[in-house]
Design brief:
The protein contains five helices and 22 strands. The strands form six sheets. A six-stranded parallel β-sheet has the order 3-4-6-9-11-14, with no helix packed on it. A five-stranded antiparallel β-sheet has the order 12-22-21-18-19, with no helix packed on it. The protein is of the alpha/beta class and about 300 residues long. Pfam families: Por_Secre_tail. Keywords: Signal. This is Por secretion system C-terminal sorting domain-containing protein.
Length: about 300
């Protein structure tokens, strides 16, 4: 009987231990305490798994900015994998967050995730620092907001047929003009490289990419790639493309000294609203239907050129 009771006590102890989730980053745990998620309200390197396993939304945006400047960054999200019911995560709260490339896939175990928000507030009240985010295991992903910087977004699992994804990459800032004020270099813009299964299909908006919505503006650009290792040489070659005549009445042609393949041309009005799109336009496009005014010509989702339509 004593042996049986001892085994029961040991089993109970192991069960109790299994009901906690390790939280290595004290600032992450403090955020959970501030959100009344960590019920013991103590920085002790753990949270009750029962506190987090049924949570559908984790929202940092409601956190106060008090003493924000004195907080160390959240760099380790160990424990996030036990938020197994999580569908929405908003890390755009009043805390400094720094994600390194080594843990860029920190959300990939939260396979029920549908919405991700990791952007910076206007005015710089929040700092979210990351260059790469891997969401390739999130088959249910519907919306991701990563406004605010140079990013690499990885959505390239060959086992998934992603569909209906909205990606917000808008940025604030000023485009830097060339010496003759005819073009605007992407090297001074927020650029997002989206790593996908088939970049050519993505550029041509074939299935499933025809169901994707990418929200950008005149201060942001994006490209599709299978590796996202865009060299400075390739960027300089792309920046060599120009248009003529400018101003134009009807038809513009492309000056393309490096013979870069032009897959896509988009025309945006002065407010950044898309007004015309051309796939594989060859050597020229017809803008006779547009009203007179100032426009931006976006080439291959990256290069912006200012155009005056007469």
């Amino acid at each position: 009987m004593k042996k049986f009771l001892s085994l029961c006590i040991i089993s109970f102890g192991l069960l109790t231990q299994a009901q906690t989730t390790t939280i290595l980053d004290q600032n992450f745990e403090q955020a959970l305490i501030d959100l009344n998620i960590d019920s013991d309200a103590t920085i002790n390197g753990q949270v009750l798994t029962a506190d987090i396993e049924n949570l559908v939304e984790l929202d940092f945006s409601s956190l106060d900015a008090i003493d924000f400047q004195y907080l160390s960054p959240i760099t380790d999200f160990t424990g996030i994998e036990d938020f197994t019911a999580l569908e929405i995560i908003n890390l755009t709260g009043q805390r400094y967050i720094s994600i390194s490339d080594s843990n860029a896939d920190f959300l990939n175990q939260n396979i029920n995730l549908k919405e991700i928000y990791m952007y910076e507030f206007d005015g710089g009240a929040v700092h979210i620092e990351f260059s790469q985010l891997d969401v390739s295991q999130l088959e249910l992903l519907e919306y991701i907001d990563i406004r605010g910087g140079q990013r690499e977004l990885i959505i390239d699992n060959p086992n998934f047929d992603y569909s209906g994804i909205t990606i917000d990459i808008r940025a604030n800032g000023l485009l830097r003009p060339s010496a003759d004020n005819s073009s605007y270099s992407n090297s001074f813009m927020a650029h997002t490289c989206i790593k996908v299964n088939d970049p050519e299909d993505a550029v041509n908006q074939n299935t499933p990419y025809n169901t994707w919505t990418i929200i950008d503006n005149e201060f942001s650009s994006y490209s599709f790639s299978s590796n996202c290792n865009l060299s400075q040489t390739n960027i300089e070659k792309l920046n060599g493309i120009n248009i003529y005549p400018n101003p134009v009445e009807d038809i513009i042609k492309f000056s393309n000294p490096h013979q870069i393949k032009i897959n896509h041309v988009e025309v945006l009005d002065i407010r950044g609203k898309s007004v015309k799109n051309f796939n594989n336009p060859n050597q020229k496009i017809n803008l006779s239907e547009l009203k007179s005014g100032l426009y931006f010509i976006k080439i291959n989702h990256t290069l912006n050129i200012k155009l005056l339509k007469q």
